[in-house]
């Protein structure tokens, strides 16, 4: 490029981004719309922008990355529910016992790790103890609602599926659409109750009423997002939309029109990813079509690593491990005029950090009684300042995973020490070389872990043990169409298992993730 052209280009860039991009002060209290898109179980290398060696299956997500800023060291917990809880509360999952999922309280192997047994109702039937995000927590939805935002959750919740106060509309969401539990069959909208009963339950709702809809859940969530966004034109309030796709989490349901090999799991995974990419494009398009592009902060990220390590590469590990493959996520921030297109940021950020960041953007002064772990990232995101975060606590004692802490370049995972800067693939355990650092990090993760509150009694039980639909109130008046749909699925499900086998994954041991295809229950064997 010749010098005059280069200077013209630089001047042009400078006019868009005076003094680099120093917007933190300007965006604080500016009350943008916030759309937070969360994929489920996506691997680091699944979006094309992280995998240049392969033909990209995600042109729309890649385009979003080109329009926005990529975060190269953005981290979450390593499983669905803990990450969602940390996002909503700004607090590490162990502080709310959200490192334990609701369904774990119906699984003997998980309960045994808590010194509990499978509960029985007064009719002697085994059932799940109620475990959910505590209603005393102030969620970011409650903060934004208090600040005058319209708040909507579309998609997966996974922080309580039974009592009304534990459902999304009891935790700050004015509008709800999607499913409450750990996953959903993309077509039947049922899911295996996953402990202790083994059969299908209906789990598809709008404003906490069951919805009878045909279609593929990824497409349905996109369509609902389009409707919700279009309706925002008639409301003066800014909006917070949390779009938690069930894609690309299992079950492996090929999308409509799938023409690949139905016996090839990777072909199905790829098609599910393409479907998610199109859904993300529809949301972006709806924002643009309705004039919300410039005053909307759009985030795209993912809750935890994939089930298969090959989708994590170059990183090691999977979902349910605190190796980088479990906890480092693709992440994009788009806000035209506020975030430099095509830029990236290497500063450390954890999913809790969205809480104080969004609070700053909304100009909220809602009191927060409980200490949060999140750090306001507006200066890193909008001024290019270094991250203020130097530590992440992924897991502490009392979780089924290894206590794991990152400080600076180093990560202690159980007894293993990795230098993430020089060895991001975690191939070389350097614990023996750095005994003092190991001792210091172990002391720190132990000290923080001691802040875990008591679990308390878990006296409330899900009753009936196997409902037709999630949501206590919804179960009370179950429509016939719903019973028919559930019975049709249950009729196809196996009624017997080999001794010691269960239809849910066993609790993980050590560094190993629970094997999603391993059905042997470690307590029952
Ligand atoms: Ca997940």
TrEMBL record:
<comment type="similarity">
    <text>Belongs to the sulfatase family.</text>
</comment>
<dbReference type="InterPro" id="IPR017850">
    <property type="entry name" value="Alkaline_phosphatase_core_sf"/>
</dbReference>
<dbReference type="GO" id="GO:0004065">
    <property type="term" value="F:arylsulfatase activity"/>
</dbReference>
<keyword id="KW-0106">Calcium</keyword>
<dbReference type="Pfam" id="PF00884">
    <property type="entry name" value="Sulfatase"/>
</dbReference>
<feature type="domain" description="Sulfatase N-terminal">
    <location>
        <begin position="32"/>
        <end position="363"/>
    </location>
</feature>
<dbReference type="InterPro" id="IPR024607">
    <property type="entry name" value="Sulfatase_CS"/>
</dbReference>
<dbReference type="GO" id="GO:0046872">
    <property type="term" value="F:metal ion binding"/>
</dbReference>
<dbReference type="InterPro" id="IPR000917">
    <property type="entry name" value="Sulfatase_N"/>
</dbReference>
<keyword id="KW-0479">Metal-binding</keyword>
<keyword id="KW-0732">Signal</keyword>
<feature type="compositionally biased region" description="Basic and acidic residues">
    <location>
        <begin position="514"/>
        <end position="525"/>
    </location>
</feature>
<keyword id="KW-0378">Hydrolase</keyword>
<feature type="signal peptide">
    <location>
        <begin position="1"/>
        <end position="24"/>
    </location>
</feature>
<protein>
    <recommendedName>
        <fullName>Sulfatase N-terminal domain-containing protein</fullName>
    </recommendedName>
</protein>
<dbReference type="InterPro" id="IPR050738">
    <property type="entry name" value="Sulfatase"/>
</dbReference>
<feature type="region of interest" description="Disordered">
    <location>
        <begin position="492"/>
        <end position="525"/>
    </location>
</feature>
């Amino acid at each position: 490029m010749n010098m005059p052209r280069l200077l013209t280009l630089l001047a042009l860039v400078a006019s868009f981004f005076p003094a680099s991009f120093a917007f933190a002060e300007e965006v604080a209290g500016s009350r943008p719309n916030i759309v937070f898109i969360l994929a489920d179980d996506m691997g680091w290398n699944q979006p094309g922008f992280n995998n240049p060696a392969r033909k990209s299956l995600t042109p729309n997500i890649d385009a979003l990355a080109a329009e926005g800023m990529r975060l190269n060291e953005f981290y979450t917990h390593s499983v669905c529910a803990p990450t969602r809880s940390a996002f909503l509360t700004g607090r590490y999952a162990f502080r709310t016992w959200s490192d334990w999922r609701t369904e774990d309280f119906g699984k003997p192997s998980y309960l045994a790790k808590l010194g509990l047994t499978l509960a029985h109702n007064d009719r002697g039937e085994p059932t799940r103890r109620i475990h959910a995000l505590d209603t005393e927590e102030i969620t970011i939805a409650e903060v934004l609602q208090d600040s005058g935002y319209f708040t909507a959750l579309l998609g997966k919740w996974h922080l309580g599926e039974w009592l009304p106060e534990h459902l999304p509309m009891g935790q700050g969401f004015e509008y709800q659409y999607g499913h409450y539990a750990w996953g959903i069959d993309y077509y039947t909208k049922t899911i295996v109750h996953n402990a202790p009963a083994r059969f299908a339950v209906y789990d598809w709702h709008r404003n906490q009423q069951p919805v009878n809809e045909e279609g593929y859940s990824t497409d349905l969530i996109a369509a609902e997002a389009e409707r919700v966004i279009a309706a925002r034109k008639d409301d003066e309030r800014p909006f917070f939309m949390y779009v938690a796709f069930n894609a690309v989490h299992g079950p492996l349901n090929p999308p409509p029109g799938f023409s690949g090999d139905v016996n090839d799991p990777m072909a199905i995974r790829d098609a599910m990813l393409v479907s998610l990419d199109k859904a993300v494009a529809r949301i972006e398009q709806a924002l643009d079509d309705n004039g919300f592009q410039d005053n909307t902060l759009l985030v795209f990220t993912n809750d935890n690593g994939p089930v298969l390590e090959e989708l994590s590469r170059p990183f090691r590990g999977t979902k349910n491990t605190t190796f980088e493959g479990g906890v480092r996520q693709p992440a994009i921030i788009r806000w035209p005029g506020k975030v430099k297109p095509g830029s990236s940021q290497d500063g450390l950020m954890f999913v809790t950090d969205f809480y104080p960041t969004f609070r700053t953007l909304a100009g909220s002064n809602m009191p927060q009684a409980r200490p949060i772990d999140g750090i306001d990232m507006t200066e890193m995101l909008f001024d290019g300042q270094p991250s203020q975060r130097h530590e992440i606590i992924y897991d502490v004692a009392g979780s089924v995973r290894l206590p794991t802490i990152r400080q600076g370049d180093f990560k202690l995972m159980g007894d293993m020490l990795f230098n993430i800067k020089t060895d991001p693939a975690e191939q070389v355990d350097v614990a023996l070389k750095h005994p003092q650092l190991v001792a210091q990090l172990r002391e720190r993760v132990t000290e923080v872990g001691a802040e875990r509150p008591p679990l308390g009694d878990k006296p409330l039980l899900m009753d009936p043990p196997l409902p037709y639909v999630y949501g206590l109130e919804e179960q009370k008046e179950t429509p016939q169409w719903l019973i028919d749909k559930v019975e049709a699925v249950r009729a196809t499900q196996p009624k017997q298992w080999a001794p010691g086998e269960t239809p849910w994954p066993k609790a993980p041991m050590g560094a190993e993730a629970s094997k999603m295809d391993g059905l042997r229950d470690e307590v029952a064997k």
